[in-house]
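Issue 218. Parser rejects a valid record. Input:
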Amino acid sequence: MTILVTGATGSVGRLVVDELLAAGASVRALTVDPARAQLPPEAEVVVGSLARPSTLPVALKGVSAVYLAPMARTVRRFCELAREEGVSRVVALSGSSVGDDHEGSSGHEYGAVEAAVREAGFAWTFLRPGAFMNNTLGWADMVRAGEVAMAYGDATQTPIDLGDIAAVAARVLVSEGHVGATRVLSGPSAISLREQVAVLGSVLGKEIRLRDLTRAEQRAQWVGFGIPEEAVDWILDGFEETLRHPQVPTGVVEELLGRPGTTYAEWAAANRAVFS
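Output the parser choked on:
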């Protein structure tokens, strides 16, 4: 059984390749930049992208299952081509924002991917992670300066390590019992932005302060960075919601992998060099 990993240069897809190879699977990796991906020699590499459907027939030939990176713009064409090539199984990376009707929500694109895959008749599994631990890599300059400026410092989420998402994706691709399932993924514990800053300080052995911004200050900053206003409002609304209703771990990673999920402290230690 050959499994195609789309987006094999991406932050999750690249890790899925490694996890599948470790599980003994035959892997074909689709990437626009093999040199950047530094893919293992055991993986068959095909140059292409979901963004360019003309590259997909070669990538899909002889494939029985696909790890599908989210790309709403071309997902229906992917589904057509995959059905023509006899693909039966699709595990799609989605997001916990599916069903959120906010104008700026990422859930609209994830929902479109899920709908196309479901309607195409594949044996599907949808993975819906929430916030990524990697999101805080954007704090690196502030951490080095000793002060992280953020609104909603007490907003409490359950961020997840990308490696745990990849491990789950590989597990459901090579094992039974996951067809027709939607798996909502989280990290192993709830943690506020303020607590994440404290963890980074502890890992780095230095004092790092969190300076509270107002919503208006944070909004102006992010809009100034070029983030669309509706997306900024959605993110800030999400933080505000977790002040009222802190997120709770789903436990799905632990259930599927039979091991604890990666904690924020473990993730921070593994990424110490980025913040140093």
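Fixed in the parser; the record now loads. The two ends are 43 Å apart (CA to CA).
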